[in-house]
UniProtKB/TrEMBL annotation:
It is a peripheral membrane protein. Its main location: membrane. This is Phosphoinositide phospholipase C. The keyword Lipid metabolism applies. Coiled coil: none annotated. The keyword NADP does not apply. Its EC number is 3.1.4.11. It comes from Eragrostis curvula. It comes from the Eukaryota. Residues 251-295 are annotated as: Disordered. GO terms for molecular function: phosphatidylinositol-4,5-bisphosphate phospholipase C activity. It is found in: Cell membrane. PROSITE patterns: C2, PIPLC_X_DOMAIN, PIPLC_Y_DOMAIN.
Amino acid sequence: MTTYRVCCFLRRFRAASNEPSEAVADVFQAYADGGVLGEEALRRFLREVQGLDAAAAEAEAREVMAFAAEQKVLKKGGLTAEGFHRWLCSDANAALDPRRGVYQEMCLPLSHYFIYTGHNSYLTGNQLSSGCSEAPIVKALHDGVRVIELDLWPNAAKDDVEVLHGKTWTSPVELTKCLDAIKEHAFVSSPYPVILTLEDHLTPNLQAKVAKLIKETYGDMLFISESEQMAEFPSPDDLKGKIIISTKPPKEYLQTKSGKEETDDDKAEGGLSEQGSEKYVEEAEELVESEKKAQQGADNEYKRLIAIQLTRRKHDMDKDLMVDPDKVSRLSLGEKAYEKATVSHGADIIRFTQRNLLRIFPRSTRITSSNYNPLMGWRYGVQMVAANMQGHGRKLWLTQGMFRANGGCGYVKKPDILMNSDPDNLFDPRADLPVKTRLKVTVYMGDGWRFDFRKTHFDRCSPPDFYARVGIAGVAADMRMEQTRVIMDNWIPTWDHEFEFPLKVPELALLRVEVHESDNHQKDDFGGQTCLPVWELRPGMRSVRLCDHKGQTLRSVKLLMRFEFFPSSS
C-alpha cells in the first residue's frame, strides 16, 4: 500500500504494479505456448508485429534471448511474460534504432540538408539582460548543434572585440573563450562541419584582429575556399572535421576624407598659400592612399576566411531570392520578413534553397528567448532555422525532434519533394495533397515517474492522475493532437489507447508525445515529452523515453507504444 497524509488522516492507495497492460498481455498470449515465448514464436512475433525480415528477426531473436538470460527471465528455454515485457520496455527496443547511426547520403552539397542551427549561441538566458558565456556554446555542440552564432562588437576602448547581444544590457564574454570552446568541443557529438556565423559590427582594424585570432585558433581545422565564389557548396562528407566561417564580406573601402577638401581649420586661418596648399594636398593624398592599402590588406585577410558569404539584402524579395547559376551564397531573413515571403514567394524560396542556404532567425521582440515554429521554415526547404537553445518549450522540442534523425549528427537530408526543380511539380506545402500513408499509434502504458520524482511532486494527497497527448507536427494539413483518458491515482498508468493519423507529407512529419498530470484546481503538471521523426519510427511495439521540458532525457520515464503504417487506401 502507498499512503499519503492529509491533515491528520492517512489515505491509502494500492501499490503501483508494473505488470503488462491487458493489450500487451494479449499479444504475449497470442504467441506464447505454455506461458513462455520460445525462439520460433519470438521470431514470428518479430516478423509479424515488429516488421523485421527473416534475417533480421533471426539476429534480433538471439539478442533478445541473450537479454533474457542476463535478466534471469528465461523459463523452459523460453521468454516469460515478465521477460517479454521487460525487453519491450528496454532501450534496445527503442522507437528509433539505437544502432542505426548516420545512414543518409552525406556527399551532396550543404544546401541539400536541414542543419541544426543556434541563434545568439552565447546567451545564458533572455535576450535583454542575461549573461554571455562560452558554456551555452559548449552545451549546444554536445547536443549536436552545427551552426553557432557569435555577435562581435568593439569593446568600450574600441581596441578589442567582445561577444554580446548589442544594444542591450547583456554582459560580454571574451571572443577568445568562445573560439577556444568551439575548437575543443566542435566534434564531440558529430564529425560533420561546424558553421560559425559572425554578425560583426567591427572596424576594419578589429576585423583584421579577428581574422588573425581565428587563423591562430583553428589552423588546419579552418575551411578556406579555393575560390572567392563557389559554384556549388561542398558536402558534409567533404567538410568533416572542418570549421566554416560565414558572414557578410567587409565593405568596400570608402574614402572618408579627401586631401582636396578644405577643413574648417583652414578656413579659420584664412587659407594656405597656393604652394603650401598644393603640398598639403599631395601629403594628404599620400596618407589616404596609404590608409586605403592598409585597410584593403586587412579586408582581404578577413574576406579570405569567409567560405560562405552572406548576401546583403536588397529588400526586394524578387532580387533577394534570385538564383545565380554561377555561384551560391547564404541569405538571412528575420522571422517576420520570412513569413511574408512564404505568402508571396513560396515557390521562389523552395527554388532558392535547392542551391543556396537560407537562414531565418527569431524576431527581436522575443525577449524571453522563445522560439517560432521551425516547420514554417522546413516546409519550404530552409536549411538554417535558427533556434534559441535556452528558450525551452514546444517549438524547441520540434527542433530537437527533427535532429534526432540521421544518428543525431546535426545534418538531416531534405526529402526529395523539396529538391524537385521541375516547375510543373514544385512542392507546395499549402496544396490539398492526397494522403500518402496512415500511422496508427497505440499508447499502452507508462512507468518511471515513481523513480525520478518524489512521492508528492504531482499531488500532495494522492498518486498522480496521468494522461498522454499524442499528435503530428508537419505541414498544416497533417497537424493534429489527440488525448487519452485520465488514469486516476496511479504511478504506472495503463491507457491501451489507439489513434490514427492520415499523413499527406510523412517526409516532414514529427510525432509529438507529451504526458501531463491532471489537476482540477490549477494548471496541469508536466510529466515529460518527446518528439520523433515519423520516417525513422520502427514499426511494432516500442519503448519511448521521455524528456524534461529542456529536452534532457529523464532517467527512468518511458512509455510503451506501438506504431503501424498502412497504405493510404486501407
